[in-house]
Specification:
It is built from 10 helices and 7 strands. The chain is α/β, with parallel strands linked by helices.
Length: 290
Amino acid sequence: MNPLQVLKRLAHAPVQLAKLADRTERMFHLERERALREIVQADPRLADPRSLNRFEHQLFSQCGQDGIIGEIFRRLGTTKGFFVEFGVGAGDGFETNTTNLLLQGWSGLWIEASDEGCATIRRNLSSVLKSGQLRLHQAFLNRDNIADIFRQAQVPTSFDLLSIDIDGNDLWMWQALRDFKPACVTIEYNSHFPARQDWVLPYRADHTWPVSMEYGASAKAIERVGTELGYRLVACDLTGCDCFLVRADLCADHFAGPFTAEQWHHPVRHYLIGRPGHTRRLHEPFSIRD
């Protein structure tokens, strides 16, 4: 092959690579859909129509949290509420458990530590920040400052949703907020640990995630602490990312039991995490219809 032929082939390489990448992405999402369908069909726990996994849906959340949260509050009869979320996904405002709630007229507080993340959120969600529908507080949280930060931000003692995902001291943070009683708590759990194993990452105030399995707490540990704080474990999402707990006095018969890690734990299925469809981004102001 002469040099001219080589150059011509190289000129077409970006197009061919783009086609290959597109085909690979399509195959991934097809396999993901197939795998999720097989998981649901094979799992007897999900046959109960009250099982929250039947309602998983991803709009802005990392996986199916948007759908589970929406269904929890539909059953509780809450249409517009107040949330607190920390840390806020990738820090852009478009991968959180609560952005979809903003679209539905909720208000709330985000807490984020990074300068870059806060700057991006201020840029991407300027109008809801300006209106006061959303407040943003920059802080690196630890168990000694978190309750004071909540009080300074005038978070009500009783509110609707608390979402925790900081890749480390998550359970310690919730324990430090025992004076606050949200209706629902969603908290990341470490699904590497089996359902019966009670494990918590030892507390370290300056902890940052080392991109390993060393983070958070097992579902059993979260169930235990939740019970101590007056909550019931009502679901874990299918990818093994988050636990969902509802205040016991609100549960009535809205949710399927038993409310244990053994019942609702799902193993690590992070290979199913993906964001099919278009890039998650909305121009402001948000269009909200009552």
